[in-house]
Design brief:
Layout: H1 13-17, H2 20-23, E1 28-31, E2 33-35, E3 38-40, E4 46-47, E5 57-60, E6 67-75, H3 82-98, E7 104-107, E8 113-124, H4 125-137, E9 142-143, E10 154-155, E11 169-170, H5 174-182, H6 187-196, H7 198-216, H8 221-228, H9 239-246, H10 257-270, H11 275-281, H12 287-291, H13 296-320, H14 340-363, H15 366-386, E12 390-391, H16 395-402, H17 406-419, E13 424-428, E14 437-440, H18 447-452, H19 465-470, H20 472-482, H21 490-497, H22 501-513, E15 517-519, E16 525-527, H23 533-539, H24 542-566, H25 597-605
Antiparallel strand pairs: 1-4, 1-5, 2-3, 5-10, 6-8, 6-9, 7-8, 7-11, 12-14, 13-14, 15-16
Amino acid sequence: MSAIATPSAQVTPEQAWALAPLIAGQPAYRAGQWVRGKFQYPGTPRKLTAAPPRAPAAVLIHDAAGRVTTLCLDLDTSKATQDVVNADAERLGTLLASCGLRYVEDSSPAGGRHLYVPLAEPMDGAEARELVAALARTAPSMDASPHQNPSTGCIRVPGALHKRGGYQQLITPLAAAYDTLRRRNTAEDIDRLRRALAPELRRNRQEAALRAKATGTPQSFQGARAASSCRPAGGWQSPLRTIAQTGLFDTARYRTPSEARMAVLNHFAACGWTLEQVRGELSGQFRGLASLYQSPAQLARLLEAEWTKALEFTVTRQGKKYAPKSDTSLTEPTGGAPSAAAIHQLVNDLENVLYAVLDARFQKYGREGIGLRFLLRAVLAYMRTMETNILDVGCRTFALALGQHHSTVARLLRRLAQLSDGMVTKIADARHRNADVYLIELPQQHRELARDLSWRQGKIHAVRAVFRVLGPAAALAYEAIERGRVSPTAKEVAQHARIGVSTAERALAEMSALGMIHRDQDKRWHITHTTNLTQLAQRLGADQDVAAQLTVHREQRRRWHDWLDRHNPDHQLTEADLYDPETDEYWPPPGLYTDSAAVWTIPTAC
């Protein structure tokens, strides 16, 4: 699907091997051999020679102190299909060039690609490992293992023999490669790369901290959540997601690429994706899915027809499932439903009460108050989107919108009804599949205040996906900038968001590093509208967090509905009701990451 690498013409292995000392961390290499059916590079390192070794060889990446002088990016066809490898090489090359970095590229007889980024100053091995791991987040075919172990990390360089015959061939012209390796990239160039990879670096550090916490604590929250959903915490991927990204599949389950891609398309259809959304990702995160078609012409010819089959299969399969997939059925108002215009006016008035009165009141309750502030924002966002003042959805729906546990939401809803001056009133108890029902109205004592204040620009949000990662302080600070009547300073952000000044400054600095906001010459903060929060959320891993939470909710709903039906003599379980951990893992469509109607209607698909 992407451009094929073209080796540099008339470069002999001996000429290419002359670059090995400029790539290696120390003048040594390891000879390769087959060990119990696996090709490895064991044994004592040997000194580099002017002529290439007669056996497959890989030079050591680290020096004796564990530092590296060249970042080695290994794109492997064992990790993804050839089309994905080629696309990853193109993507990485574009990223490096945009940061002003020069690199040397080669290809292997098996179709793999190597990119070498020479450094003017040696880099600590841990720093290099972190940077390479962040780059691996952007390229599914990338193998970060050469940088993992300072004592054994090695890589085949241009001119080295391959284990199955042939040798590593330069793609970069020999003269240009030599010039790049002699005039190496400066520390300033690497700093630009770090800034470009800020979301991936942050995500890796956070996942490492969670793994360390789960390992050191007998039963942490993340560990408990992972156990409840029968999957590992941090870095988890569903099998179908891996197929869509890499193009590799289990031949014991799917005999042909056609079967594998139909499984992926069926999954997308069941999760509420549209054909346009799938097409939009074929050149992005779904390059593996695209590579399952033999050619671009076959992709263009078959995709629409196969998508139609996937929709038909999904309708048939869901039709067999007798249990409704929503927490609730629609609640009918008894006094006549207010008009859409009246609902929007009510939400505007309630926002004024929230910002003028309730935010200050909830601030006194510390951590619980933060939860109450966001829950009320979620309630107002639900009202505006669904154009109703009747709250008849379950706690898991709000848990998804807030990134919280459903039991936390249940507790906060009760507290919100107590502390909101009658804004939120419970009018019906939960029963069977139906959730508690709440009525939202403007309290009498706040009506004059609500009408006297002018309405704010923009729309109110619950917790957008990106702030699942960045935290509540960042969400409140961003809201203060986004909905403020004037661009605020850092001190004004802290005042409007009702958070500490130091907390606000940390949140602002982090969002600025991610390109979400910027500061002008007067030290006033503005939203950077060119930064796509949906894409940033995906780079930070929020999409996997949302998908994991939805999967847990689906399983919990299924268990509850099955329990109800087991006690209903009219229903019997069928094969269609059994849980398949591969096809039933939820993968939300891109629209869910923006605060739109999809957030509130997604439980229907669950």
